[in-house]
Each structure stands twice: as C-alpha cells, then as structure tokens.
C-alpha cells in the first residue's frame, strides 16, 4: 500500500518517479466509479484541521483526507474565481483564451467575455469528455463562467443554482436517487467567500463596491454571524484564547513588488484595509474566515452523509478542492489575485474508499487543480481525455503506479505569472507596472517575507527557473 506522510518525507530526496514506483502494488482493475467534485470558493490549503490548523474544525474535509490522499502542493491555475473556473471546465490555462479585446484572459472580467470557443475547445471540455464516456452529468451551485461555458450549455443537468444549504440538500437528494449509469457531479459551494464582504463593507467608496454590499444581503448576514464572538466570553479572553493570532508574515514583504501596490490601489477598499485595520480587526477577519470555512464544511458533511446512505461510497471517487485561496491577513492583505502562497495554494483531497490508500499526505508532487482535473476524471471514466498537454492524470499517484512527474508548475495572475519547482522555489515575473522578477525560497523562508533574486548563491537557480518560466509561458502571450 502507499506510503504515509512520514515515509513520503523520508523518501522525498528520491525522484517522484522512484517514490511512487517503489511505494505501491499494481493497479487493480475496477468498474468505473461515480465521480463527485466538490469545491469551495476562496479556501486556502491551510484552512482545514487535517492540515494542522488549530483554529477551526473541519470534520467533513478531514474525513476525506483520512480515507484518501491529501496533496499539500496543489495550486490554482489563477488565484481569482472566473479564470480558475474557466481552466477547470476547459482544462486549459485562462491565458490560452482571448477576451473580446483580443487580450489573454488573466482576470475576472476578461474571463466572462471570452471570444467564441474554437471547435477544438468545444469538443475537449471536461463535459465533452465525460459525456463521451457515457456518464450522467450534473452540476450544482456557483458557476461564474462565460455564457458559452455555462453548465447547462455544456450538457450538465443543473440540480440547483443555490450556493449554500439548499445546494447541499439538493445534492444529497441527487446522490440518493436512482441512476441508470455512473454520474459525474460537480458541487460548487460559495463559502468561505463571504469573507470578501468584510473589507468591502468597511471601506466601500466606489459606487461599484457600495452596490456589492447593497445587493449582498445574504452574504453580509452570513458574515455578521461569522463575526460574532462566543457568548459569555469576555473580549480579553476571546483575543487571548479563541481568536486566531496574526500570521507570521503579517507585515508586507520586504521590497514588495510594485505590482502588488498597483493591484490594491485599483480597489481602494483593499488599500484602506491594509492601512486602517488594527491588529484586532485583522484577527477578527481571521476569526470570521475560520467560521465561514466551518459553515461550508457542515454543508459538505450533508453530502458525505448522503453518499454513505446511498450505499455507493465504495463505488464513488470524491475529489475536494477550492478555486483559490484568501490572503487571510498575510502581508496585511485580504482577498486574492496576488501570487503569494495563501492565494494560490489550495486544498486537494481525493477519496475512493477501498480502492485508493487512506490517510496519505503527499508533500512531493505538484498538482494543478485546473489542468489536472480533466485528465484525471476522464482517466477514471475510461478515456484519455486531453486539453492542455501539460495537464496530467493524477491516477498513477493515487494508485501508486510508476510515473515521471512534472518538475515545475506554472500559475497565471492578473499581475504576472509564476513557476514553482519541485525543490520548493518560486520564480515570479510581474508585468503590470514595470517588469519585476522575484526568486523565493520556501525552504529558508516559507512565509515569503523576502526574496532572493539578487543573492549571488541563487544565480544558478534563478537561471534555471527563468528557463522553466519560458517553457510554461513561451512568448508571445
């Protein structure tokens, strides 16, 4: 059977191919499973109790991890919703597409106004592959996709457009109903995204931001509930015992890139939160973020309970992830879009009880939930589904088969692009102000408090990662 975390770390000095090949027995031939992809909105990888976070409890997410594989090095293709979802549905980087102005898609607005889909894209979407495989397609929850990629347009049965409790209820009903053939179900839950409304409400200046608050009554009410302190606890005891502390990287990064300043100045509430929030305000933000994550975990629990009650748990592949993370007070930032770890490193858990190993933590392999989901689910459906050739089925990793795995992974953003390598280095090239580059070393500085771009002993690594960057993002873009 597969190695658990202690063994994975012990053998991490070996190549990923050696690690996987020596750890496991041969792949078993099994019938095609039902496949459920559950994903939240704006949840960082650290926001699970199974990830060691002591400030929240996520028993549903923990259950998936305990009965499957948790990848700690999983990343969003773009740390904002619409581009990330564009990649999820198509299996292609958002930058592959052009908006109506002819520019590569790297931010929310552009992702919602992409040019008409090429025939090649139409026939190689996630839905297209799963339909060809004979799966029943169902979708529930948040969409945030261009009209040409809406789930109903692609052939999904939309079981609910709610993003909260009713979605969990409708999903449970769907799972417990009779199905003539295997199903592929996507469940898109909204929280902990309601944390976005805290800074917007506190510092709304533009008509756009005021409109967001005016039309977000449900979101604001949910946030207010999450902000409540425990009853019968004094304010002093609350901040001493209950409220999460400030993160180790609370202060802005040394020599912070101008691209980050450009970004937060475009949305004044982000700038004002950074300047005006007190340390207690930031801690309250972290408190609410935890409570909103616990809220969505309860909704996931309803779905998992239904799966058990259906009698199909051992015939169902469950994948859990998120579209991107939240800065959660790191570098005095909230929201997303930046290329810091808090915004791009996301949960990625996979469970198929009785078929793939349980309680495995993979801290070695680089996963893209956008690029890799399509080839993975189509692999389990019996097809070798392809879109972007750089996307990989993670089935060999789950079933511990020998495989040569990627040595680096590319990520796009509105403000630049990044490459992360297997040795825990990150190279970022920002391009919205002047061209700026950074080399980050997560071995020495996991919280990204500084960069090592001009340090002489990193010269060779800098050259190597520039080459990796050019492979992931060849010019012209």
Describe the structure.
- This protein is of the alpha/beta class and 477 residues long.
- Helix content is 38%, strand content 14%.
- The protein has 20 helices and 14 strands.
- It has helices spanning 5-10, 16-23, 59-66, 81-90, 108-111, 119-122, 126-132, 151-154, 165-176, 196-203, 207-214, 217-227, 235-242, 258-266, 268-276, 279-310, 341-344, 369-380, 395-398, 459-472, and strands at 34-40, 68-71, 74-75, 136-141, 157-160, 183-188, 316-322, 348-351, 360-362, 367-368, 408-413, 416-421, 425-430, 436-441.
- The strands form 3 sheets. An 8-stranded mixed β-sheet has the order 5-4-6-1-7-8-2-9, with helices on both faces. Strands 11-12-13-14 form a 4-stranded antiparallel β-sheet, with helices on one face. It has a two-stranded parallel sheet with strand order 3-10.
- A hairpin with a 5-residue loop joins strand 13 (425-430) and strand 14 (436-441).
- It is globular, with a radius of gyration of 21 Å.
């Amino acid at each position: 059977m597969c190695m658990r975390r202690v063994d994975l770390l012990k053998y991490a000095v070996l190549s990923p191919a050696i690690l996987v090949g020596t750890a496991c027995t041969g792949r078993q031939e099994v019938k095609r499973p039902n496949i459920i992809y559950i994903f939240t909105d704006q949840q960082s990888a650290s926001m699970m109790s199974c990830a060691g976070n002591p400030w929240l409890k996520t028993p549903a997410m923990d259950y998936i991890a305990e009965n499957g594989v948790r990848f700690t090095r999983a990343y969003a293709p773009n740390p904002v919703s619409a581009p990330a979802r564009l990649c999820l549905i198509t299996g292609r980087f958002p930058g592959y597409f052009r908006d109506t102005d002819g520019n590569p898609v790297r931010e929310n607005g552009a992702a919602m106004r992409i040019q008409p889909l090429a025939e090649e894209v139409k026939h190689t979407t996630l839905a297209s592959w799963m339909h060809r495989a004979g799966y029943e397609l169902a979708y529930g929850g948040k969409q945030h996709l261009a009209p040409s990629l809406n789930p109903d347009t692609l052939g999904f049965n939309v079981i609910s457009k709610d993003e909260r409790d009713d979605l969990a209820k409708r999903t449970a009903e769907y799972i417990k109903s009779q199905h003539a053939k295997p199903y592929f179900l996507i469940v898109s839950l909204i929280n902990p995204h309601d944390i976005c409304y805290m800074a917007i409400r506190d510092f709304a200046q533009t008509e756009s931001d005021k409109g967001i608050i005016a039309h977000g009554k449900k979101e604001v009410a949910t946030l207010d509930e999450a902000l409540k302190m425990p009853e019968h606890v004094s304010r002093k005891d609350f901040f001493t015992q209950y409220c999460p502390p400030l993160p180790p990287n609370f202060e802005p990064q040394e020599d912070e890139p101008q691209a980050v300043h450009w970004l937060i100045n475009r949305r004044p509430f982000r700038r004002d939160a950074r300047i005006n929030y007190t340390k207690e305000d930031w801690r309250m933000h972290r408190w609410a973020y935890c409570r909103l994550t616990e809220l969505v975990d309860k909704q996931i629990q309803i779905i998992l309970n239904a799966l058990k009650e259906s009698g199909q748990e051992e015939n169902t592949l469950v994948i859990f992830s998120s579209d991107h993370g939240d800065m959660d007070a790191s570098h005095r930032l909230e929201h997303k879009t930046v290329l810091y770890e808090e915004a791009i490193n996301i949960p990625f858990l996979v469970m198929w009880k009785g078929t793939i190993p349980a309680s495995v933590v993979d801290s070695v392999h680089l996963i893209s939930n956008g690029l890799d989901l399509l080839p993975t689910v189509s692999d389990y459906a019996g097809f070798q589904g392809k879109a972007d050739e750089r996307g990989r089925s993670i089935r060999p990793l789950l079933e511990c088969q020998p495989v040569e795995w990627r040595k680096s992974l590319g990520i796009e953003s509105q403000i630049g692009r990044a490459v992360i390598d297997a040795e825990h280095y990150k190279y970022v090239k920002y391009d919205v102000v002047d061209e700026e580059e950074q080399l980050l070393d997560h071995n020495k500085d996991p919280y990204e408090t500084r960069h090592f771009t001009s340090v002489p002993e990193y010269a060779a690594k800098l050259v190597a990662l520039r080459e990796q960057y050019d492979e992931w993002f060849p010019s012209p873009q």
